[in-house]
Amino acid sequence: MDSTPKQPSRSTTANALLRLPSPIGRLELTADDEGILSLSIETDGQLPLDARAEIPSPMLRRAGDQLDEYFAGTRQSFDLPVHLIRGTEFQRSVWARLATLTFGDVISYGALGSAIGRVGSGRAIGGAVGANPVPIIIGCHRVLASSGQITGYSAGRGIPTKAWLLDHEGIRHR
């Protein structure tokens, strides 16, 4: 799996854009020459860059194929370069730990904080998880409360989207 986040470079902008349908709504992916920059899930019928024309790239087509396979249940890991150009060092450390979770894995917010040396930072951890620019590929949906309860999700339709992804991976939740 090559979805381990790369460190930001000096100046990078998205030069490729692709949209595709999925069981949880339309997806919108952006990339630069180094990797995937963002993945957005349709919210209220809208995507962030709906006004822009698609500019597919080989990398985004490969990402689209892998996402189709994931939703079809034939892929459990992604082999895609991810290029995180935004976010604080703290956020990037959270995203890097999330990138190590595999299909069907789950972690609590507290355990995630402990894993990156930030015990007792549940609220900050939750904020960083919610700011993940590439959900699904970096599986932020795999973070639950220690009770197994879904406490929120910022992409798509929110909690119903997270519940769908968890169910798809066979992750028990409340």
| Apparent shape | globular
Strand order of the largest sheet: 2-3-4
Strand content: 5-15%
Task: Calculate Rg over CA atoms.
Answer: 15 Å
Detail the poorly predicted runs.
7-11
Number of helices: 5
Can you count the beta strands? 7
Please provide the ordered H/E string of secondary-structure elements.
Answer: EEEEHEHEHHEH
> Which structural class should the secondary elements be placed in?
alpha/beta
Helix fraction, binned, reads 25-40%
Give a written overview of the molecule.
The protein is an alpha/beta fold. 29% of the residues lie in helices and 14% in strands. The radius of gyration is 15 Å and the shape is globular. It starts with a strand and ends in a 6-residue tail after the last helix. About 3% of the residues have low confidence.
Quick gist of this model?
29% of the residues lie in helices and 14% in strands. The protein is an alpha/beta fold and 174 residues long. The strands form three sheets. It has a three-stranded antiparallel beta sheet with strand order 2-3-4, covered by helices on one side. Strands 1-5 form a two-stranded parallel ribbon.
SSE layout and pairing:
Elements: E1 5-6, E2 16-20, E3 27-31, E4 36-41, H1 58-72, E5 82-83, H2 89-98, E6 107-108, H3 109-115, H4 122-130, E7 143-144, H5 159-168
Parallel strand pairs: 1-5, 6-7
Antiparallel strand pairs: 2-3, 3-4
Helix pairs in contact: 2-4
